[in-house]
Amino acid sequence: MIAMLWRVGSVVERNVLVARRVWLVMLSGLVEPLLYLAGIGFGLGSLIDSVTVGDRTVPYATFVAPAMLAVSAMNGAVYDSTVNVFFKLRHRKAYDTMLVTPLGIGDVAAGEVTWAQLRGVVYSAGFLLVLVVTHTVSWWSALLALPAAAVVGFTFAALGMMVTTFLRSWQDLDLVTLGQVALFLFSTTFFPLSSYPAVLGAVVQVTPLYHAVELIRALCLEQIGWGLLGHLAYLLGVMLVAFAVATRRLGRILVT
């Protein structure tokens, strides 16, 4: 177990050393959700008085902010597990070199997913800090939401890596971006589920970002209930399945 953690840690360490050279570029990913929060949450919030969530009525910006937190975790994790992994897998052949060392396929996959998740957590922590400073959420809510954001990061990191193993060219990454935009717009990010048509609402409820948004929103609004376990179980299930598929696919690509 310790040996496995050391091997996975060595993959993460390699990514950390590379990221130190481009840390400003990495932090730029935090800006996008802040712009959306400012432009839509506060801007549109001046036109929309409030939104009812469960038994509470909250300002529109307070409704949107937790969703932007989930989006931050998704974006950070997906970028690293798609663009960066694709480059190392198909062009730089970095994983072929890694496998000459004691690292195995599972170690490489776990290391890359962990690093992508950490990037998502960094984005989430920075975004949460802004929300706390602006009194959009409380410190207590932030402490509850950060671990949930970490789970969201793991889920999308595994999904991103799984999808990347099926990509054949840089143009295929446009489909990843399209998928992210669709999730971003239709995962109760800006409007409650009740506002969607029945068919679209049913589709929304099977998407991972919907469960991420609902989980984090409930924690930020301190609406704790057993129903949150369903969202958590869904995310963990998707993460495990995606990681298993990603590992198997990575093995086929690198070994054959």
Summarize the topology:
Elements: H1 2-19, H2 23-27, H3 31-42, E1 50-53, E2 56-59, H4 60-91, H5 94-98, H6 105-133, H7 139-164, H8 173-185, H9 198-204, H10 208-220, H11 227-255
Antiparallel strand pairs: 1-2
Helix pairs in contact: 1-6, 3-4, 4-6, 4-7, 4-8, 4-10, 6-7, 6-11, 7-10, 7-11, 10-11
What's a concise summary of this model?
With 256 residues, this protein is mainly alpha-helical.
- State the helicity in percent bands: over 70%
| Count of extended strands | 2
- Rg over C-alpha atoms, rounded to the nearest angstrom: 19 Å
Largest sheet: 2 strands, antiparallel
Q: Given the helix and strand composition, which structural class is it? A: mainly alpha
State the strand order across the main sheet.
1-2
Secondary-structure element sequence? HHHEEHHHHHHHH
Given as residue ranges, the uncertain stretches (5+ residues, pLDDT < 50) are none
What is the count of helical runs? 11
GO biological process, one term: response to antibiotic
InterPro entries: ABC2_TM (IPR013525), ABC2_TM_bact-type (IPR047817), ABC_2_transport (IPR000412), Nod_factor_ABC_transporter (IPR051784)
Pfam families: ABC2_membrane
Membrane topology: Multi-pass membrane protein
